[in-house]
From TrEMBL:
Annotated family: Belongs to the queuine tRNA-ribosyltransferase family.
Binding-site list for substrate: 96-100, 150, 193, 220
Protein name as annotated: Queuine tRNA-ribosyltransferase
Gene this chain is encoded by: tgt
Coiled-coil intervals, chain numbering: none
Keywords noted in UniProt: Glycosyltransferase, Metal-binding, Queuosine biosynthesis, Transferase, tRNA processing, Zinc
Cofactor: how and how many bound: Binds 1 zinc ion per subunit.
EC number: 2.4.2.29
Amino acid sequence: MAPLNQHFRILNTDPESAARCGLLSTPHGQVLTPAFMPVGTQGTVKSLTPDTVKALGAEMILCNTYHLYLRPGHQLIASLGGLHSFMNWGGPILTDSGGFQVYSLGKLRKITPEGAIFQSHIDGSRHRLTPELAIEIQEALGSDIMMCLDECTPYPATFSEAEASLSLTLSWAERSRKARADSSPQALYGIVQGGMYPDLRKRAVEAIAAMNFDGCALGGVSVGEPKALMEQIVAETTPLLPADRPHYLMGVGTPEDIVKAVDCGIDLFDCVMPTRCARHGLLFTNTEKVVIKNARYRKDNGPLDSECDCYTCRNFSRAYLRHLYVAGEILAMTLNTLHNIRYYMRLMEQIRDAIGCGQYAAFKSRFLKDRQRVET
């Protein structure tokens, strides 16, 4: 494999945990870590313009290989200048491999050693996604960070089922590595699978590390397992990852999940939670759980979150936000999403500040206590 294409430098470490701040350099700019990537599944963070996403503090976003392959097609995007130009986003982009989306198709897909055979959720057409095609698609899109095709191990799974799944993922990782063009400026991250079995996770880390990927991701968590088990897998696996590479926890998660995972040494996160919750009227604050459609906000003239500096909180009341949501107005989706994304960006800023000051343990304890009060 070609030498590392992108540089990752650790800036600060926390004296009482594995938490760390870093600087990730990519062809489209630098990213301060720990970082949360808003999800732009189909080339857009739903209901927000790219300029708005940037203004909220997001430095890198995630886009979806599976969806962009099916519509409008990676070749079309390439012919129009690549994904950055196509969606007018000047910052870094990470593209997932499509493995999780294929996993989510259930009976519409079949896994073989060669790759995944699936039916499109759009029109029922049949496709075969191989490790080589996943790399071809991502190279055509021109993302800054590409992911290897993997098989997401379901939960529950027996040891033998998880072992067989891991073997397939490692085989696909090697094929992905060989498929990547030597001249490509794009980074390629390997994915650690292994289900809920520490021995398999350790085996996966050793194999992925030996392949010299630009970064390492933990996949196959938050797939239905108990929260405590997910936290255990992350806590036990993350310290095994190569210390000089970015550590990416895929598809996680809640604010509490992020704070706990940073403590273990995770650098990158993505999740649909802030945007999906916004569309369903669930808004994040550190003081209360806000379900904006509730009648209690009908006459509430106060801001959504008095501690938040976002456009929504500075300009509109809870009563107005409730009115928009109940009325089904499009603006409700925009204002709600704007706030939730900014909440996550502010959380990452606070995390980086706490690590930089050597106070992450205190921050974590205080934050989790506050969130527990919110949820009870």
